[in-house]
Amino acid sequence: MKGRKLSPAEYAAQIQEWARGTALGAHGVRFISAGEGRARAELEFRPELAPLTGMFHIGAIMTFAEETASAAGMWQFNPTNALKPDLIPLTFQLNFNQVRNASRGKLMADAEIVHRGRTLLVVEVKVHDDDGKLIATMSVTQMAPRQQQG
Question: What's the pTM value of the predicted model, to 2 decimals?
Answer without folding.
Answer: 0.92
